[in-house]
Amino acid sequence: MTDVFAVGKQMFAQFDGGAWLRVHLGIYGAWDFSGEIVVDSTIASANGRMGQTNQRGTIFDTAGENSITSIGAPRLARMRMSEQSKMSTASDVFPPEPVGAVRLRLLTPTVCADLRGPTACELLTDAQIATVIDRLGPDPQHDSSPAAEEKFVTALRKRAVPVGQLLMDQSVVAGIGNVYRAEMLFRARIDPYRAGTTITGDEAQQLWRDWVVLLGIGIDTGQMMTIDDLTPDQWTAAMARREERHWVYKREGLPCRVCGTNIALAEMQNRKLYWCPSCQT
Fold it and tell me: How do residues 97-112 score in pLDDT, each as one tens digit?
């Protein structure tokens, strides 16, 4: 492997000889890691155990989210699978025996990465990779240039469909999922049912720049933290519990943290949509 990067929900890895690997985790895809990895120049075990810290030292939450030993979903279920495996010296053998339907294994002398349940896993050429990336909307972690911002602003504002739908369209912007969709719209105080054509240039620009910030926090901490201005104690509590990290996501029926109105829940294109009917008018 000579290069690897992500655009939205897809990973692209280049290998000697011109081959490319494209992986799209989708809803059920997941990577599990085992062996040893280097974290800030320190060798750490990556064997699926809970309670470790990620690259920036964040404590993983009580729901079992762990971005060093697994990426994707369902994280907790895979850890349980590991815990239920038979007790024997085989757990100390490297590489470990594959567990479940492993679609792909990437292996080095010290690290093993197993992929299960992806939406896509394929080998492509340079030209095919370029075609896939051209179809995707911008991802600020891959391209944070003014041109990428303008591409997002233009794509968001040219269609008369709900903005809540547009933010989940990977051709408009790559990588925003259900959590960030709900949280970004609340932070911008935008009704998720507003048509994209009614979103102002300033509003669209604000959404993009907020996405840049939130995505950076998510990568640094391994958690989708979307609440601002927390005290150190509140930050620690939020890192440990998802319920303390969000404004509206998964808070249907609970009072809005800003105005007290009950958070609403609906479906938009078969995905759950959370918003505050008062703040987001």
Answer: 998 899 999 999 998 9
The answer to whether 91 touches 105, Cβ cutoff 8 Å, is no
| Residues spanned by the domain of 254 | 137-275
- Other residues' Cβ atoms within 10 Å of the Cβ of residue 182: 29
In terms of phi and psi (left: phi > 0; alpha: psi -120 to 50; beta: otherwise), the region of 99 is beta
* pLDDT for res 175: 87
The rounded distance, in Å, linking the Cα atoms of 12 and 3 is 8
Dist CA 107 CA 119 (whole Å): 21
Burial of 6 per CB tally in 10 Å (0-12, 13-18, 19+):
middle
Statement to judge: residues 98 and 212 lie in one domain: no
| Token pair for 81 | 């699978």
Residue 64, SS3 per DSSP: coil
